[in-house]
Amino acid sequence: MFRQLFKRSQVVDRYVSSPLSKERLQYLAHWAEQGARNETLEKIARCQLVLVDLLDIESHPNRSFTVKEVEAAVDRLPKQAEMATPLNTPRHSLGTQWAG
């Protein structure tokens, strides 16, 4: 799916090689099955990578994060991330459904 959303191979490589790739992909596939447009899926994928960075998952690959920690990271997302959340989905679920 990352290859469908992003054209540049460097961008695809980053999405594939970043932590929680499988979980992030499953979350995107769920929204694709619900009829989310590619534009929305791209925004969700970008927000997922920002959350991976905010939680510093790469430095702590075996660490479990609490829902509160994920929600705090979501609160630090840029305001544009609010637009990435599919309709009728609480903003915090953007992070907690795949990373929590």
Describe this structure as you would to a colleague.
- The chain is an all-alpha fold.
- It has one domain.
- The chain has helices at residues 2-5, 9-17, 21-33, 38-54, 67-75, 93-99.
- Helix 3 runs antiparallel to helix 4 and helix 5 (67-75) packs across helix 6.
- The longest helix is centred in the middle third of the chain and has 17 residues, at 38-54.
Rounded mean pLDDT is 80
Low-confidence stretches: none
Terminal CA distance reads 22 Å
Radius of gyration: 13 Å
The number of distinct helices, counting runs of at least 4 residues, comes to: 6
Q: What fraction of residues sit in β-strands?
A: under 5%
Number of domains: 1
Helical percent range? 55-70%
Number of strands: 0
Largest sheet: none
Report the structural category. mainly alpha
The run of helices and strands is HHHHHH
